[in-house]
């Protein structure tokens, strides 16, 4: 469950605050801690929320693939909040929960197709410093997905990096969204230290 964020949560007030709280409770059952932290700077919060809403309308890339990319980035970066929320969203959006649950140990798991493995490898390669994306991996994905989906996947993984890294820096941790739905915990890699 969540610890204490490094930046204390602000009180969410006003008409806009009431709307944000109502929307958050409708979507997640509660207001994510990140909203309270980011409430200190409304332009940043609004831009982040706006980008998320716009990205939800992107439809060139398969939703399961984007979910796996999101969770692979979150796992590599160490964002427990993103994994918790990603698993919760996979459940609520009717995505493949069995596979979503296995993303943190995708290299060891036998449930993924070669394309899904390439997507997670690509998302992780984008997330490393410096990035380790290869021409071969990009060419395989481009051939399988096509240019529009490849652009979307890349932008989605980049956006996930921004949000995951901000959450880790803020000290935002899992809030139990997945467990509130009765979902089992995510699988963990057998050798967590060798992933990063």
From TrEMBL:
Gene Ontology terms for molecular function: peroxiredoxin activity
Source organism of the structure: Haloechinothrix aidingensis
Transmembrane segments: none
One protein family per Pfam: CMD
Annotated PANTHER family: 4-CARBOXYMUCONOLACTONE DECARBOXYLASE FAMILY PROTEIN (AFU_ORTHOLOGUE AFUA_6G11590), CYTOPLASMIC PROTEIN
Residue ranges of every copy of the Carboxymuconolactone decarboxylase-like domain listed in the record: 54-125
Gene3D superfamilies: AhpD-like
Protein name: Carboxymuconolactone decarboxylase family protein
